[in-house]
From TrEMBL:
Cytoplasm among keywords: no
Keyword terms: Developmental protein, Disulfide bond, Extracellular matrix, Glycoprotein, Lipoprotein, Secreted, Signal, Wnt signaling pathway
GO MF annotations, alphabetized: cytokine activity; frizzled binding
Name of the molecule in the record: Protein Wnt
Amino acid sequence: MSRRVLHCFLCLGIIYLKTGGFSRVLALGASLICSRIPGLAPRQRVICQSRPDAIIVIGEGAQMGIRECQFQFKHGRWNCSALGDRTVFGKELRVGSKEAAFMYAILAAGVAHAITAACTQGNLSECSCDRGKQGFYAQANGWKWGGCSADLHYGLGFSRVFMDAREIKHSSRRLMNLHNNEVGRKVLERNMRLECKCHGVSGSCSSRTCWTTLPKFRELGFILKDMYSKAVQVEPVKATRHKRPTFLKIKRAHSYRKPTDTDLVYIEESPNYCEVDPVSGSAGTQGRICNRTLPHHPHGCELMCCGRGYNTHQYSRLWQCHCKFSWCCSVRCNTCSERTELHTCK
Ligand SMILES: *[C@@H]1O[C@H](CO)[C@@H](O)[C@H](O)[C@H]1NC(C)=O
Ligand SMILES: *[C@@H]1O[C@H](CO)[C@@H](O)[C@H](O)[C@H]1NC(C)=O
Ligand SMILES: *[C@@H]1O[C@H](CO)[C@@H](O)[C@H](O)[C@H]1NC(C)=O
């Protein structure tokens, strides 16, 4: 769709831009469009103007990241929501918490994934399949590179240039965000797949061609969720001459270890996300659906509602049941009903 849309935009000056769940028809040029996309840093607007085809894919990558975040945290008090303005990256958590660490990593991975997929499908003008992997023999393994290998290098590079351009203030949060962006991209890089096809008489597999493909984004979501639960707290270290924080170290007495690229890092302890708090980015849990019969589960009403109690909503559910097929050709059903309860936090 993006190609067609852009074509239309170039010819008529109309683009139907879909970002963050809202759609708008804008009858504007590229620079105006880029200036109206919410939440872009100045450097990102410049990139947007020079690569308007990529900006749509970036929006899709960010959406994929946000949806995955919501899936992974659907049972948590923090469900991936934040307060504040809507941006192309959703509502951003502009704090130093573990949750922000996860958000940054999954968005950076989402953008790299989407750009790489768009390259492979021929949707972007500046990239396609990985040329370095076409027609060459992988000497050690006895097969030949063939097909269309995903150009991950391009996708990662694009994500690095674009997503890292968000960080404009020299602060310890900048170091944290840049680190977590890279963790997200590394997770993608480490989970690339190799697919192969056999050649030879009647499937004898006397030779093989192989190519790299992207992993399912869901897999990356689970891996990052696991990293989130093991995230490490860090603190900034300032080089003596400048006042600026120059790198991060793990916050532990007598430790001078820097975090590695498999550590999601955070600076501040998380709030409990019970109440609305604009400072920590907590949207609170009022109105969240909870499960009354799960006492010690995060989704149970006790924990979800933080002891405030819950409201009970009763409704009846109707559906077709006991269906019988009679010759020929009709189906008769009864209507069954059930009273159901739904609980939401006070
Ligand atoms: C590539 O473009 C096609 C057709 O315009 C679209 O259906 C597909 O989703 C796009 N793929 C990616 C990864 O953006
Ligand atoms: C997440 O929680 C907020 C605040 O309680 C709620 O408004 C929002 O609908 C929830 N989002 C999802 C995706 O469940
Ligand atoms: C609550 O949890 C129980 C046990 O896991 C499950 O059977 C039930 O469907 C859940 N109820 C709701 C409303 O999600």
